Each structure stands twice: as structure tokens, then as C-alpha cells.
Fold this protein.
Amino acid sequence: MTGWGSFIEQVVEAPVRNLAFGGATTQSFIDAGSWQAVLDGVAADDVVLIQFGHNDQKDPALDSRGGYSDRLRGFVADVRARGAQPVLCTSTERRWFEGDRVTPTHGDYPNAVRDLAREVDVPLIDLTAFTTWMYEDAGPVASKDLLCHFAPGENAHWPEGLADDTHFHERGARRIAAYVGWMLRGIERRDGDLPARGSQLVS
């Protein structure tokens, strides 16, 4: 069980600090001191990848067009104030199939990030769209291998088995990290938005 941030350094030509932790919301990330830790290590020309939403949608105070968007907008401003480049990411989709199609589970949150990226003019990496495609391309059966699905006795951590359609196996995390790396290159080539290679990337 791992996040895609654990593998991003292997696909970008820059050192990476990954401060993400499971269960975080935009507010709990601030409360834990993690956002300040991000900022304390950010220098001019760094790139900061920002992705939340999975857990924000469980908190009424962090509704998509209210507390959630407000905090993301503040994150963008904080990063820019340090001369660094923010990049917003939509949430990775949950693997919830109905037939051969994935059912969206994040409501308005992805659209809120897309709209915010346009509003504040920052690059966007649409991981909701990408992971939906990734699951559907693999199909309802093979896509299980991208997440934490274990039969009883297969993994010592879950001796009774596990069927988790939210958290990634290393296989899925590596594919997402590879996609993010390619998108960062595309953003750089298209707009010249990203700083020179060799700067730090924070996820």
C-alpha cells in the first residue's frame, strides 16, 4: 500500500520531498504542521504538487466550492510568494465499477480544482480522468492488481485478505507517478511554466 508520491523521483530529473500522508485533508495538513513544513523547505524555482480531496469530501466545512477551494487557493498563493511554481492535481479516482465503467465518487471536487486552476492560472494534472481511464483500460478484473487486493494468506499484513479500491499497490502508484512525470514535462514544453531542471519537486 503506497502513494504515487513515493515513486515520482524516479521519473523526474529533480530531488523530491514527499510530505503526503494518508487521511489528510487540506485542513488537517495545515493543523499537523505539514503545510508549514512544505513551505519551510521551498525555495525559488521549486515545483510544488498539490493534491487533496479524498478526505475533504467527508468534512462539511471543506465543501468543494468553500473551505476546500479556499485552502487550495491559499496554498497556491503561499507557494507563489516563495517564487516557486504550484501545480494542482485532481484526486485519483476510486476503483468503483458498474459493469465496464467506473463510477465517479468525488462529486464536484475534481471540477472545483479544474475551475480553480483556470481562475488562478496554474497548471493542472487531471488524475481523476487519468485513473478512471487506467482502470477502464485494464478492465474490472485486471485493474484490481493496481490497488490493494489480496487473497487470504497472500499478504502477512492482511492475513484474512483485503479488497481496497482506494489505496494503491506499488504497481498502480508507479503508473500514476510515471504519468505525472510525463505531464510535468508536457507542461514545461508547452508553456515554459516550470522552473529549470534540477530544482526541487515537492509533492
Notes: The CA atoms of residues 56 and 63 lie 7 Å apart.
